Fold these 2 entries.
Entry 1:
Amino acid sequence: MNHEFHRYCMQEAIDQSRRSVSEPEKISPLVGAILAKGESIIGRAYRGMPPHVAGHAEFCLLNGLEEKGFQRENYFGSTLYTTLEPCTFRGRDKKSCADRIRASGISRVVVGMLDPNPYILGNGILILRQLNIEVELFPPDMMAEIENINNSFLHQYGWSKGEEIDSGTFPNLNNLCGKWIVEAPLPDGTIIVDEVYIQRRVANRLYGVQINLNAQIESLFYITYIDKGIVNYTFRSKSNSPNGLDHGTGMAVFKNDNEAIGYGASRGAVVGEIPQLLSFKIRRSEN
């Protein structure tokens, strides 16, 4: 695809997002969506676009095209540009945006920023990838523009840039990025081993990827700073677990900048459907 047209579509999505309408008494994200095929834009939408007052941008876009007679074959080879990661669940009797994209036949999705909602964070991208839909991210300068537009929405989830924690915290959050090894023993003597790659800090949170070496399951992982030496963690990933989802949450206490111990509850393909309470050790990897 022509680079200039690719960037033009991303900017158009950002421009559409500025027109978004929040639901009453709620801080909703400002989201724009563009559908392109070849070097032509075939649809534009934004959150709350009439007549869908509470509609997500992707929903408004796809509904509008369906009303014009678009069929599944019309979407093959098309690219969706959306300024926010597609949602993975909605209220009763509503399809998620990820499901709508899957059903449409769209071939590629370009995402502006991750959804800070911990129940969606990263899952929208993982679901699309598992469906063999190509996923790409906006470039950093455009991501920053989208985050600035959505500062009030991000603030609800502790992502506000204005709440940066002092770098003198223990552990020093700025020094935790990199590779870590997590080892948790099971009652049968099996040792669960995870590699955790902490990649990015946003305010009091750290984000990354967790890979379980026992079952080769990749998860999205984030840590939230609580108090001196104490952090909470959460991970979740689509997998072959009984309910289709591996996830866990817990707390870790750092001895120093290179070691921590913790405990938490986990369920999924490795430990089984029933949540297991586990203790574990964390150490910085030398590799």
Entry 2:
Amino acid sequence: MGGCLSQPANIQAPASVEIVFDRKVEDDYDIGPKLGEGVQGVVFSGVCKSTGTKVAVKRTHIGSYGSSASRASAFAEIELLSYCDHPNVLRLMGAYQTGGDINMVCKKVEGWNLIQYLIQLDKEEAAGRSAEDIAAEKMSLMHQLVDAVAHVHARDIVYRDLKPANLMISEQKPRQLTLIDFGRATHLDRAARLEKEQPMGTSLFQAPEVEERAAYGQQSDMWAVGVLVYLLISGGMPFEHSIAGLYKVLAGQYRPMDESFSPEAKDLVSRLLVVDPDKRLNAAQCTQHPFFTREGL
């Protein structure tokens, strides 16, 4: 096992992550079928040969000479994940570079994404699961979500792509939420803003300042938290997916909250879906809101 290979000057893998370049990932892991594919790479299932631990291997192809953009992106994701150590954040286990590929190895997260989970809840409710039990579980998952975001933000990371597909919920109870896929995350000071960056997330969850190509930072993640809390409580979205819905995002005109929202829930959502990012709750404040500390749903 070697040290970190040479990298672009402005992209440095942290000392805590040992990037292996004198062995192949296949030397240490049995690689299984493809789990998924995206712009930044292909994800395969795998099993550690020495421990039997199930893993997910994200493979980014950088070519024979290493494309500066794809190489920098792969190293950046490894770096950001290495800063995180939280039960609700994807766990990085190692990384390999051989030939034209970088392979990032993470603990495998099994279960459903958030939308699949909500469909599963409908089935469980139809089968007789109590509304009180379901509400308690949703409450736990929302708390896990804001804890995970607070952990990420405390490490000066902007996630930039909070959406149901990147939130995995375990099938096993008590159910656990895991924030996955840091491919679009970036590192910056909490007070900093990204200037006129191309939007990186999904439009249904993007904050007004992101849609307007204005400067944005960690508070844009908190808008997405507000959308996700609204979705988990009501089962619906606060904005419709249309041009009219986009205008309502820009104006902060979300759909009225019905009786499924407690007064504390309404207050929390109203403090997150705020057009002015400086007036939104930050992640640490969110964890201390009465919705989580007292009343809940």
